[in-house]
Design brief:
The protein is an alpha+beta fold. It has helices spanning 13-42, 50-61, 74-92, 202-224, 235-268, 281-284, 291-297, 299-313, 358-367, and strands at 2-10, 110-112, 119-121, 124-127, 131-135, 145-152, 157-164, 176-181, 185-189, 194-196, 273-276, 316-319, 346-348, 355-357.
Length: 371
């Protein structure tokens, strides 16, 4: 199995400049590929293969206008073309939305580094046309690297690589765990484990309050420095926006860390099977009252992490049928309610009189699910 590891790299000033050049090249070529495909489609042409587009880029590099493309590794541009073409292929198959142009402000700064030319030594990594860069921890040596990517998270630079590892042989119990996810709590398991909503904690609420204040402050400064219809970005605005970026980064790290701790704790109980309800995230996000809470909870990421961690330990991962009535079914007698509103937080059975938390009741029913 291929497992990804992400390690912080510590470049010097010159290396940072070169990394940003690679990021800019990757974004430019990705956008150029999308524009080229759309132009060809409007003119009645078919999908252009990435091989043909790469040949065009080779000719572009010889011109004076695009001579700057030679300042970075040619693998950066090649992989950007491949990524854009793969995005279109996923769109044609109905697996993803139509690829969009990458914005300089909003897109994640990242680029590809050739796995064959990637060299590792003691707390150092060699990146093409950048040089040897210090790493915060040791990357495994003497293994095959897969899809190396260099990225920037708003504060630090990182390199992530996939490494082949053998799955650990664990003795599993015969227990089947049902996992019911939601907004009130992140997840409630059939074995009694409850994982709280991290967004309701004092720390996250304090950070969000500070974030709102900074956003209001920067908005007022934009209005104060407005010249006609254009907004002027002053030094104070740049400082405030940097603080906002750091706050977003910290909140994202807190939420992601909570998801990793929760999914790892479930897997560490070593059940034979984990059952989770099928989540229609796109449908849930259409609810204007719940969309923000659902986005912050990271339910899709929770499912993704749980799935790959189950695969590592050889645990069967099952997604219950979309129409399986886990919440409406009584876990004691099997009676199914015709109606159950979202406001009813306690499940009270009309047949046997059983009373329990509705999420815990759903988790027990999910643990008994069989496809």
């Amino acid at each position: 199995m291929i497992l990804a590891i992400k390690v912080r790299i510590i470049p010097n000033t010159e290396q940072k400049k070169q990394l940003w050049k690679s990021v800019g090249t990757a974004r430019f070529i990705y956008n150029w590929t999308i524009a080229r495909q759309e132009e060809n489609y409007r003119n009645g042409g078919k999908f252009i293969n990435d091989g043909e587009l790469r040949k065009e880029i080779t000719l572009m590099k010889k011109t004076e206008e695009y001579e700057w493309l030679n300042e970075v590794s040619n693998n950066v541009a090649k992989q950007a073309v491949k990524d854009a073409c793969n995005a279109y292929k996923r769109f044609f198959k109905g697996k993803a939305q139509k690829p969009k142009f990458k914005s300089r402000k909003k897109s994640k700064p990242s680029f590809y580094n050739d796995n064959i030319k990637l060299k590792i030594k003691a707390h150092m990594v060699l990146i093409e046309k950048v040089g040897w860069i210090k790493t915060s921890e040791q990357i495994p040596i003497g293994v095959r690297y897969n899809n190396p990517r260099v990225s920037f998270d708003g504060k630090y630079w990182y390199i992530s690589v996939g490494i082949e590892k053998e799955n650990p042989k664990e003795e599993l119990t015969k227990e089947s765990i049902g996992v019911d996810v939601g907004i009130k709590d992140l997840a409630i398991c059939s074995n009694g484990m409850i994982f709280k909503n991290i967004n309701k904690t004092r720390l996250v609420k304090k950070l969000e309050k500070r974030l709102r204040r900074l956003q209001r402050k920067v908005s007022k400064k934009y209005e104060e420095n407005k010249e006609g219809r254009t907004f002027v970005k002053t030094s104070n605005i740049i400082k405030l926006e940097k603080q906002i970026r750091y706050l977003y980064r910290r909140l994202s790290n807190i939420r992601n860390n909570h998801l990793h701790q929760s999914t790892t704790k479930i897997v560490k109980t070593k059940p034979s099977k984990v059952v989770i309800e099928t989540l229609n995230i796109q449908g849930l996000m259409k609810n204007k009252h719940l969309s923000k809470a659902i986005a912050q909870q990271g339910l899709y990421e929770f499912k993704r992490q749980l799935k790959y961690k189950c695969e590592i330990y050889g645990i069967e991962f099952v997604e219950a049928d979309k129409w399986y009535p886990s919440s409406k079914t009584c876990s004691k007698c099997g009676h199914i309610k015709t109606r159950l509103s979202l406001s009813e937080r306690r499940y009270i059975c009309e047949e046997c009189g059983a009373e329990m938390d509705r999420d815990f009741n759903a988790a027990i029913n999910l643990s008994r699910y069989s496809a």
